[in-house]
Amino acid sequence: MKPENETLIRFPSLSSNEAFARSVTAAFAAQMDPTLDELGDVKTAVSEAVTNAIVHAYPDRIGPVTLKLRRLEGNVLEITVKDAGCGIPDIAQARQPMFTTGGAERSGMGLTIMESFMNSLSIRSLPGRGTTVRMRKKLIGRGEAACRP
C-alpha cells in the first residue's frame, strides 16, 4: 500500500523520549482529523510500543529506536516501532496478558493494550537482533463520525 504521507524518526532509548514519540504521533495523526478517543488510543498504543523498546530491548544500555508513521489510503494510520535490542525469544508467550520480563514493577499488559486499541498488530523479532512492532488503525475522524446515522 503506497503511503499518502510518512515520516521516520530515530531517537535513543531514553525514557524521556516516550513522551516525545507520543507527541510526534499525535501531531502526525492530526492531519487525519481523528476523534479525541481515536487520538487517545493511538497515543497509548505508541507509548506502550516505545516503552517496551526502552525497557525490554535495551535493559542495560541505550540503543536506537525508530518510529515510522505512515498515512495510508482509506485514512489508515500505520505506526512502526523498531529496535535493534535483545529481541523476543517467544512472541506467543510475550503476547499473553500479564507476562513480563521486566520485573514486579511491570504489568505485562503492553502488547495486549496495543492489540486492543489498534485494528491490527504484528510483531517480528529475532533474539539478539531486535524487534519490529507494526500497528494499524483506521481512523473514522471527527467529520465522518458526525455524519453517521
> What is the residue-mean pLDDT, rounded to a whole number?
87
Strand elements, count: 5
Described by its quaternary structure, the protein is single chain
Give the strand content. Answer: 25-35%
Which terms summarize this structure?
globular; Heat Shock Protein 90; 149 residues; alpha+beta; five-stranded antiparallel β-sheet; 29% strand; 36% helix
Q: How would you describe what is shown here?
A:
The chain is built from five helices and five strands, in the order E-H-H-E-E-H-H-E-E-H. The mean pLDDT is 87. The longest helix is centred in the first third of the chain and has 22 residues, at 36-57. The two termini are 30 Å apart. The chain has a five-stranded antiparallel β-sheet, with helices on one face. Helices cover 36% and strands 29% of the residues. It has one domain (3-147): Heat Shock Protein 90. By secondary structure, it is of the alpha+beta class.
Summarize it.
This protein is of the alpha+beta class and 149 residues long. The chain is built from five helices and five strands.
